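Task 17 of the worksheet. Students: predict the tertiary structure of the chain below and write it out as structure tokens. Keep your answer in the requested format; marks are given for formatting as well as content.
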Amino acid sequence: MQNLLFTIVYATVLGNVASGAAQVYPSHPITMIVPFAAGGGTDVAARIVGEHMSRTLGQQIVIENAPGAGGTTGSARAMRASPDGYTIEMGQMGTHAAAVALYPNLAYRPDIDFAPIGLVGWVPVTIVARRDFPPKNLKEFIPYVKANAQTLNVAHPGVGSVGFTCSLLFNSIIGVKPTLVPFSGAGPAMNALIGGQVDYMCDAINDAAPHVPSGTIKAYAIGSEQRSAVLPDVPTSKEAGLPEFQAMSWLALFAPKDMPKPLLDKLTSALDKALDDGNSRKRLLDLGNEIPDKTSRGQHVLAALVKSEIARWTPIIKAANIRGE
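Model answer:
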């Protein structure tokens, strides 16, 4: 009886402490780790939602770029942070799904070592090339790449990134092994493509969208079921003749595991408000992001997505027989 009474009192005290912590949280700025260089799609989306969440929470969300190893360096830092609500991460398909198969000694387990805050958006993947790349469309692109694979350079934002993983998928479908050139993030990789230093790449539409209309790069196809409103003239991979290339990345917010539920709920609620805000939505949509509806948001939905994406990408990556450093 005495033990039962102690247990009840102890649980009540813990509940009151957690409730009190949630009422005062946050009391100082929050760091949002972006595991890629500034300027890429992940970084820009983080700044958009972080700006609105700052207003909701009443404290500044400070973006900290921590590139390296396809985003796994920054993700490992986020995993090791104190679960006090003051360090979160903008992760994505590369860091929280593909990296599991690419890095046998990965320092974290995406489905176990993080507390999911919520899905930020779906991001179609595009096949793009330097502006003077000879093929005019995807039907010309495929045989050209097959004939010249040994001399072509393919940019990607690091082993384990979305660009790297989707390049593996594309190259495996058409049966080529060009030279893969790593960069510290999508921004530097895209700059190299614009500058003609590399030949082509597969990357998120939010990285490509600002550059295709001006003609600084070419877009051959988008790996989604339907065309994107931001690049309406770019055909889907199915329309272009490569239906096997179905590639949709995603962006999501994560916290270190064991974060108190009341704090996690505050962050989830703040993200939800950011995704419902008219200005934030427009800015995300203008980049090519697809914003999840209410039923596709939340902690449990994201937890299930991470598990399913690990299961999807692991056999594809293992078949390519490529490992991260």
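Marker's comment: The chain has two domains: 2-122+249-320, 124-240. The beta strands are 30-34, 61-65, 87-92, 114-130, 153-156, 179-182, 200-204, 217-222, 248-256.
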